[in-house]
Amino acid sequence: MSETVAFSKHSVNVFFHILTKCNLTCSHCYINPVQHGTNTLSVDTITAWLKIFVNKTRNANLILLGGEPTLHPDLAKCVKAARAMGYASITIDTNGYLFHDILNKIKPDDIDFLSFSLDGATAKTNDQIRGNGCYDQCVSGIRQAVNRGFKTSLIFTVSNENIHELHMMPPLLRHLGVNRFFIQVIGIRGKSRDTSSTLESEKLQVDCNTWMTLIPSVAEQVADLGITVIYPKVFLNDNEIFECAGQVADNYFIFPNGRVYRCPLCEDYPLHSFEIIDNILVPKEKINEQDLFALNIPEGCVMNKLVQPGNLSYGDDGTPDYKIACCLLKEEVVSRKS
Ligand code: SF4
Ligand code: SF4
Q1: Which domain holds residue 135?
Q2: Is residue 338 part of a domain?
Q3: Minimal CB count within 10 Å: which of 78, 134, 178, 238?
């Protein structure tokens, strides 16, 4: 059975994009250079910014992102700096190319997870989304990491372009020796915003019925193989309470131009809550995303309604059929094999 992971102010989650440069051009990439910058932060700046968010009284969890973070020549130094200053967990999200010989520069104990992105169970589907050769490279990267004793996660971003292969993932995950499986839902932001359509036949996001039937059942199969699964809730039942993480949790999404958001759905807009100026976190003037978090609408998440309303549906009387959960609300199905 899955369990909803409750929001908490007892830990801080830091999603740190240390650069936006990437070797790939995935069709759904959410990086938006106009909004997020194109610079690569120096290791000194990264260290200074990490210090802002580490918290001695609460666990601070760090996710290092890009772009492709292994393109940063000093990624290993950043990891070691984060560990030394007390981050409770460190994850590196990668597309699998593992540049700068990163597996030889860090040890499995230096990080908690290496998290690989694969958006299909076959090269055909994955490479249509992520580019030619990506599937083989990612699988090879996972194998190298597993062989060297790193704990690995795999992130599969579900859309109507690849959901037909989700049921093929459990044997692949077992075969690769992955420890954790993240199912993500595609967000209509970045490049997806430019390519998405509101036509039913061309929508990127899967509908409520498909999501509610398929995702939990694949998650159960994967958990039976001894792999923990985490997936976003997306659609709330009548008896489930809507909460906005921007109000009840402590998440920071940091970009190399100094913008700091509390909500990923705001990242295409200059709605960030803070800016880092001279290595100090400065609140941004109104109007910003925090003014939106407090709005109470029958559809649930207000940003969802503003930026990706195609996943909503309504009855004849105009009442929404369901609420959309905060995009940060997750279900977890814990591994059932030791
Ligand atoms: S690997 Fe990540 S950062 Fe690079 S293009 Fe793909 S989605 Fe964007
Ligand atoms: S996704 Fe919606 S509910 Fe979650 S933080 Fe953003 S505005 Fe709030």
Answers
A1: 3-333
A2: no
A3: 238
Residue 64: per-residue pLDDT: 98
Alpha helices per DSSP H over the chain: 33-36, 43-53, 75-84, 102-105, 123-130, 134-147, 169-176, 191-195, 208-224, 245-248, 289-293, 302-307
| Rounded alpha-carbon distances, angstroms, from residue 160 to 119, 140, 143, 216 | 11, 26, 28, 17
User: Is 140 part of any domain?
Assistant: yes
**Span 61-105, pLDDT tens digits:** 999 999 999 999 999 999 999 999 999 999 999 999 999 999 999
> For residue 31, is pLDDT > 90?
yes
The rounded distance, in Å, linking the Cα atoms of 30 and 187 is: 8
**Mean pLDDT, rounded, for 260-268:** 97
Which ligand has the nearest atom to the CA of 273?
2
Q: By alpha-carbon position, which residue is closest to atom 8 of ligand 2? A: 244
C-alpha 281, offset from chain centre: 23
What tens digit of pLDDT does each residue of 186-212 get?
988 888 877 666 555 568 999 999 999
User: What percentage of residues in the chain have a pLDDT greater than 90?
Assistant: 88
Spell out which residues line ligand 1, taking CB within 6 angstroms: 22, 24-26, 29, 31, 66-68, 95
Which pLDDT value is given to residue 200?
Answer: 59
7 C-alpha vs ligand 2 centroid, how far in Å? 12
Query: What's the start-to-end Cα distance of the chain, in Å?
Result: 17
Burial class (CB in 10 A: 0-12, 13-18, 19+), 3: exposed
Q: What total number of domains does the chain contain?
A: 1
Is 202 among the domain residues? Answer: yes
Q: How far apart are CA 181 and CA 187, in angstroms?
A: 18
